[in-house]
Amino acid sequence: MTPVAAYDEFADAYTAENETSLMNAYYERPATLALAGDVAGRRILDAGCGSGPLFAALRERGAVVTGFDQSAAMIEHARKRLGADADLRVADLAEPLPYPDDAFDDVVASLVLHYLRDWAPTLAEFRRVLKTGGRLIASVNHPFMNNLIHRQTGPRPDYFESYTWTDEFELHGQAARMTFWHKPLHAMTDAFTAAGFRIAVISEPHPVPEARDLFPDDFHLLDTFPSFLFFVVEAG
């Protein structure tokens, strides 16, 4: 199932799960916002914005935010959250973006690049719409975590190769299936530099401390082994 078809199918469940889950609300989103820092007055593109929680948080911090997602159902959820005047579009991450050159100070790509087999066209578009010196703040599935799980459960894939897999999980009580691409760390960093970015930060954050009491069964594992990998890269 393609990402757009999958998210259209379980948009309601994903939106509800994203609001309060350990992985999103207490780990990935706080880490992304911490890396973004002071965004007041900055023009930010939320690439793959989903139902808009990160868009909302950035806007509350004073950023001027634009967002797009491939899933029309997710954009509808975002419009309900953000209001009719929010700058939201349906667009494909793997296609040319509907924005002019040098339009943004930052691009935020939260848990979206790992859906793509080839990062090069997408990173080239991010570089195009960013001002020189602008930042791409990206989070992806951690390749070490992915490969460790796959080596334990089969079919023991080669870490150094790019490969795809499909995950089955539950979102707010609804079964979901998503397909991802594994890339080794060096392939990720090579893709950023080939697209004209300078790597400023590679981060492996912890979940926020208050999650310990809210998720006592899951907090320790996430606090001692990373699930996501974060990058801040600067447009040269």
Describe the structure.
This protein is an alpha/beta fold and 236 residues long. It has helices at 3-9, 11-20, 22-36, 53-60, 72-82, 120-129, 143-153, 185-194, 211-214, 219-224, and strands at residues 43-47, 64-69, 87-90, 104-110, 130-141, 163-171, 174-182, 197-203, 228-235. Strands 3-2-1-4-5-9-8 form a 7-stranded mixed β-sheet, with helices on both faces. Strands 6-7 form a two-stranded antiparallel ribbon. The longest helix is centred in the first third of the chain and has 15 residues, at 22-36. The chain is globular, with a radius of gyration of 17 Å. The model has no long low-confidence stretch (mean pLDDT 94).
Keywords:
236 residues; two-stranded antiparallel ribbon; alpha/beta
Let me know the average pLDDT.
Answer: 94
Low-confidence stretches: none
Which assembly state applies to the chains in this document?
Answer: single chain
Beta strand count:
9
Order of helices and strands: HHHEHEHEEHEHEEHEHHE
Question: What's the Cα radius of gyration?
Answer: 17 Å
Biggest β-sheet: count, sense, barrel? 7 strands, mixed
Global structural class: alpha/beta
Question: What shape does the CA trace take?
Answer: globular
Quote the distance from N terminus to C terminus: 36 Å
- Placed side by side, the strands forming the largest sheet appear as 3-2-1-4-5-9-8
What helical percentage do the residues reach? 25-40%
Beta-strand content estimate: 25-35%
How many helices in DSSP terms? Answer: 10
